[in-house]
Amino acid sequence: MAELDLENEGEAAQGVHGYLSESEYVPPTEPTVIESLENWRDKKLALMMHWGPYSQLGLVESWALSDADAEWSRQGVDWEADGETFKRQYADLNKTFNPIRFQPVKWAQEAKDAGFKYLIFTTKHHDGFCMWDSAYTDYKVTGPDCPFNAHKYADVCAHLFEAFRRQGLGIAAYFSKADWNTPLYWAKDTRRGRFMWRGPSYDPADGPGLWEEFVQFTHNQVMELVTNYGRLDVLWFDAGWVCRRNGQDIRIEELVAEARRVQPWLIAADRTCGGPCENYITPEQCVPGKALNVPWESCVTMGTSFSYKYDDDYKSVRQLIHLLIDIAAKGGNLALNVGPQPDGRLPENALRRMRGMGKWLARYGGAIYGTRACAPFRMGDFAFTQKAAERKVYAFCLYKAAEDWRESVIIPYTGKVARARDLASGAELPFERVNGGIRVQDGTPSADAELYDGCAHIAGVFELTLE
Fold it and tell me: What crossing angle do the helices spanning 156-166 and 104-113 adopt, rounded to 10°?
């Protein structure tokens, strides 16, 4: 048997992926997918959710099952000396997962009111636990060992997806290509012994029959979601180490083609793998330092963790809006992650920030949604977006604190401006051309009389109409 390369763990480090370089991007060629991708780029803001049995512990999702990742993923527990007991207990969390306070309709309403335009939901993380009623495993939310199985919302994906669609929001199905529950991926009695890593427990080249069973298992589960769970907009594939170059070929092109025979508009995000099935790039917990000329989406946590963490430290509304502006100015989308509680509720501190964002976006969202990158993108405290067809440029003056507000600002934009308007009030603003840009009055004090979760004067937002 060939020796497994324990160092080759794809582009993930401590559970966080890097991202494909702009030069490696392969654009789609199907007209329907190209159109879907342009519509997706207009949406700008997604609500991402990691939710499952692991939420009960307040630990990182799934990764603690991998012995190779134990040093960082099992922090805060005392089982390091007995990893086997810990892994058994972790895998058994399905037997106590009972989120009877789950309210899919409320989640969807809160998401819409907060200004989100689509949902990215973990149908299955690396632990293999399915949040839908899969016919191919009992390790699922409707399974006999899960106490939630008799609840009216037991098929979480079915009810959640439908609730979000009714609010006019898009659906992205997050699906891990790795599955640490099935013996088709983590087989028993291999040369690895009990020490597991994020890859398979055997070399697929030496076990082609077993690997083919895993490939079929993966295809079957994805097609369940595509066929039985209504319209999907994106197939969001995680576990980038499961790819052809790592000897883990699940024939992703074949799978995506099969899915598109059912839903031709589907966007695929085969993270960090490149090729025709990575229709957009997914930086994680970071924002590129410059504008990218390809479709991209940064997935960033509202707090410090993707899954629910007790007493997590959430970013302020000011920080979140500045993050969204920075990403929009560089041509991307923001997938903002909120980890639901194990009882089925959204954390109150997260809801406060969502509601604050919603108030701000209700006033200024016209400068975010439907825009594209616009030079000079970012200059100091200023950011820019545009709607080129309308000859509109939007300038944001980002205030680090309320007291940073100033009555007049010099916008460092040197294009030919015909009119300037305060986006909040709609009032036309007098302006003068000065060295390096134009000087305008900032009308945010009156507009910000209603605060956003305690944050005043987040940004001055100006609409510039070009000559």
Answer: 40
